[in-house]
Amino acid sequence: MFDPVCIIDDDRKKIGTMIYQTQIVGTTAEIEKFIREFEIEQIVFCIPSCLEDERKRILDICSKTGLPIKVIPFLGNLLFDDAHTTLLGQVRDIRVEDLLGRDPIKFDNADIKEFISGKVCMVTGGGGSIGSELVRQIAKYAPKQIIIIDIYENNAYDIQQELIEEYGKDLNLIVRIASVRDYFRMNQLFNQFHPQVVFHAAAHKHVPLMEESPMEAIKNNVIGTFNVATLAQFHNVQKFVMISTDKAVNPTNCMGASKRCCEMIVQYLSKQPGCKTEFVTTRFGNVLGSNGSVIPKFKRQIEHGQPVTVTHPDIIRYFMTIPEAVSLVMEAAAIAHGGEIFVLDMGKPVRIVQLAENLIRMYGKVPYKDVKIEFTGLRPGEKIKEELLMNEEGLQKTKNKLIFIGRQIDIDADTFITQLRSLRDAALENNEATAIRALHEMVPTFVTPEEFNKKFISTTAKAGSEEKTDEKVPVSV
What we know:
The protein is built from 15 helices and 21 strands. The chain is an alpha/beta fold. The protein folds into two domains: about 5-95, 3-Layer(aba) Sandwich (Rossmann fold), CATH 3.40.50.720; about 110-405, 3-Layer(aba) Sandwich (Rossmann fold). Strands 9-8-7-10-11-12-17-21-20 form a nine-stranded mixed beta sheet, with helices on both faces. Strand 11, helix 9 (about 255-270) and strand 12 (about 280-285) form a beta-alpha-beta unit. Helix 9 (about 255-270) packs across helix 14. The longest helix is centred in the last third of the chain and has 22 residues, at about 450-470. The protein is globular.
């Protein structure tokens, strides 16, 4: 039950007027003042369709008050039917993504439905954060069959039971425990189920862990991708969709370099003479709420009364929600013709420390006072800022204004396959020094994090200095 006390509006002409006996008292700059004056207990954010920068500005002000915040959904998400007769009945709690400074991304469901309906779809890593959401979204579009492949039986079981509860016998669902590293096991599954579309989500993605175990990143990511992709080509799969990451761009760690190798494998296979499979790569940034992401960690720390730990005060990341990431993968698959890298315009990058501060405020606490923020230092292989494109890549528009196609960098096929064999052999022998050297040869943009971060900090400092120099200063006469 809501009891409106006052209304805030940035149109000064409206100040003093009444709406249903509730007065418009002032502007958003005065929110904190009126919260104290009227002893407000709850804020309802009622301008869902405002511009993203303005939305973020206002929500930042609201979050600093420490009060609970409810949000009216975006207009496109509002329901107007017999069960949803009022706006206030559809308000929801503020979410972390509300503070990211952009609207949710819309995708063309008609394209996706036409692409998925009636098809046999295989999802490797189908129990993981991205893989399980892929399976959920595929299930909505009436596939002929879904085949979940995962090495971790607990995750595979969880998504299996979730889908059985939701769809029962209406969904033809197959779950198989298997490793993408095992070529012969994967070949057996391709022979048995004849997938028409393969979504390759299986990968090791945790940067610091892979820095400690680089052979596992190479075996699982590079060799695993080569196995599944070559089998897709051999079995004439219609489309193969690989899920990549912004960490593949100018990588500073083994995980990112291994995923860049995966992109190159997909590109290499797409250019093979007589190739009937359409190969496509999707590249995006960090995913909110995924396994190993910062948000669940921050929430645990706040709820357990611990300091929130951030690696560096200047660290910046691009973020998107899991449904957005998966919708990108689905639409990219639907509109792909083969050989493309699809890149999402993810809006402005977000400072992790600001994300931590906003999350603390959402719990009704004051950053640095009620909850400490501690800076622990960059982790092994960690960049201060991630990128979505390499310098050589250009951007080509698609019909979705937020999805672009990155121009592929040419690779020499003979050199590439020779280097790939050397990398594979070294990894299988667990020869770390040789494998890392081979990884650097295959990915020339692979540099140490120290090199990248030093250059980034130097460039940022120089830009800030020039900006100050350009400022106009008053001159006394």
